[in-house]
Amino acid sequence: MPIKIPNNLPAVNILEKENIFAMDEDRAYSQDIRPLRILLLNLMPTKIVTETQLLRLLGNSPLQVEFDFVYTATYEPKNTPQEHLVKFYETFAAVKNRKYDGMIITGAPVEQIPFEEVSYWPELCEIMNWSRRNVYSTLHICWGAQAALYHHYGIPKYPLPQKLFGVFPHTVNIKEKMLFRGFDDVFYVPHSRHTEFRREDIEKVAGLCILSESTEAGVYAVVDKRYRHLFITGHSEYDPLTLKTEYDRDAAQGLPIHVPANYYPDDDPAKTPVVRWRSAANLLFSNWLNYYVYQGTPFDLDKLNDPGDVSGLYGDGI
């Protein structure tokens, strides 16, 4: 949350240079406050695990947030109890007449399948198109980011020689921007994927900006220059033992899998993994919720502005 300070206080300029978000009294008094409405499109097979991971991070904020959960009607989940889906989830048809402050589209274990061959691809495209007019800010994660960049901008994905698997160091390209305020010069993010999109393809699109990347893991964070869509390639939401679970599963099935990088002490799976990404994960999601959602979304969601209008954002956006 921002701090409220008197108009024209000299500390304002100092705080802004240190990336501390402050608002003057005039802006504070003009703000309307209500609970934020967030829609989670959960494409992961273990939906309870994924929703718990994301809610844990999004709950680490003083903001009041209300959640709706959806899954694709064109694919019936096989790893989540039906009673859980019936009780807590809706299909897109049930929510498409609503509007939301924010939306998260998760990853999915379908990255090695061509986009058009994914069983729910037409429905996902419909949802992504809908989000442009009915959601203020959408956060896309891993395959969700690849799918959105392909659908909206025609950016392809490429197979990797081997699975990118582990916890990798990242740097921030544009330190003064909002998404990475408070981050260290080097921070860590878990990755678990077989495909990637490439910097040169993103740079060809004038409407996109690369905010963060990794020498080993490639591009990590991309934002559209209208500030309404963010694309994250890693899994900052992962729990401490998520990579271990994936490694143990694949090893037990005899699949070709290497020990996740920078995860076990001495690369020994018998040892307890070292968690080095949780503080950055909490910052990432709280920054998105505060700067990209709360500070920009209209009080009356029926007045959601055109995606090209960024006048509601505080400061310079990105």
CATH C-level label of the largest domain: Alpha Beta
Report on the biggest sheet: 10 strands, mixed
Helix content: 25-40%
> So, the CATH homologous superfamily of the largest domain?
Class I glutamine amidotransferase (GATase) domain
Query: Low-confidence parts, pLDDT < 50 over ≥5 residues?
Result: 308-318
Beta fraction: 15-25%
Q: What structural class do the secondary elements suggest?
A: alpha/beta
- CATH topological fold name of the largest domain: Rossmann fold
Give structural notes:
The protein is α/β, with parallel strands linked by helices and 318 residues long. It folds into two domains: 30 residues, no CATH class; 230 residues, Class I glutamine amidotransferase (GATase) domain (Rossmann fold, 3-Layer(aba) Sandwich). Helix content is 30%, strand content 25%. The strands form two sheets. It has a ten-stranded mixed β-sheet. A two-stranded parallel ribbon has the order 1-2. The longest helix is centred in the last third of the chain and has 17 residues. Pathway: Amino-acid biosynthesis; L-methionine biosynthesis via de novo pathway; O-acetyl-L-homoserine from L-homoserine: step 1/1. It is found in: Cytoplasm. Its main location: cytoplasm.
